[in-house]
């Protein structure tokens, strides 16, 4: 799992002249092979109207589904630039992450956090990627019992438990493939083509783009297909270019390091009464997890911890809730996934996109990764191991590719201790993007950097690039906030 910045309880984040507001949709653009750059799209004006939320205007754009003549509709939102005509620089597409994150309202929520001059200069464009929200949403049905609580122990120990774990993964895959016959076309490669059609509908020669978390992966995939159409691109909290299963495993190890840091931090806060040393806090944690009963069991607890670890502002509320549970018997906060339409769609898209993007793992690789995590820690957090489901998925039709020798340099922003998208993976992605610069927020333990942690060094560098096109001369290091 990658944290999504506008998903409730599972995540974190003037008018311009009429000619600048004109948006023109794609009509009749054939699906091209993934190794080619698509021809320019024909376009006609979009009909914008009210959104189902405040602060933006919305429209729909038809795009080809896959092979054949079928199409789906992509939901788009627009928050107009607030500045003068002389300040206007066009459209800035934004994506909050996922895969599976709805981006329609993100144009409003992220737009409010962007530096003022960026808001004055750009229309902020959000969209629901294919398979998400109001863009042909996916639903995997029961997803192998994912929405039943308490869920089974998520960390299998022993061959029998490992076999049962694989059976649950197969059931998840079967449910997704049975309910979504077009799953192969819900890939990041397909979504990147949709992004280019949005660009054409906006009347923009180049794509200006801000992608957070999985959005960074989408931006890099767009550059692989359309290098000559890349404009100013900020990729924040960067996903690695690795196979999704390998990314999930690396993230799980990073979560163990982050949890150790959390234990040390809790031990230094005597008001919680959870232990005076890291080991004592660990013992309290393990005992609490083992004693959970009812609909909130170890799997739900791990889900809550996974969410907590991604952002340090969640540490204090988690520690207070855990303290109240240990000392007063208070219930812990509910944990996703829940059986509401939004959550069902998110969980379905999360797995479907990952499995459509990269080579599937074998059963031995899935169990090998779990055993390696158990060897490192008897209680690993495997909440983000969605790509294990891909062991029972067909091989992808269009595996994701990243970067291109002919693309212009772009800007990456990254926290050095981000457990959700670890720094080493971000550097591997940087190596795929020729000339890219990275702004690293040193001594930061949270996921999401630009217009998220309110760090002037990061925000000024990214805003300067978006406004002028000028990148830092070299990679830049900014001082972060440290622990809470």
TrEMBL record:
Source superkingdom: Bacteria
Ranges where the AB hydrolase-1 domain occurs: 91-444
Protein's UniProt keywords contain Transcription regulation: no
This protein's UniProt keywords: Hydrolase, Signal
InterPro entries (UniProt xref): AB_hydrolase_1 (IPR000073), AB_hydrolase_fold (IPR029058), Serine_prot/Carboxylest_S33 (IPR051601)
Family: Belongs to the peptidase S33 family.
Protein name (Swiss-Prot/TrEMBL): Alpha/beta hydrolase family protein
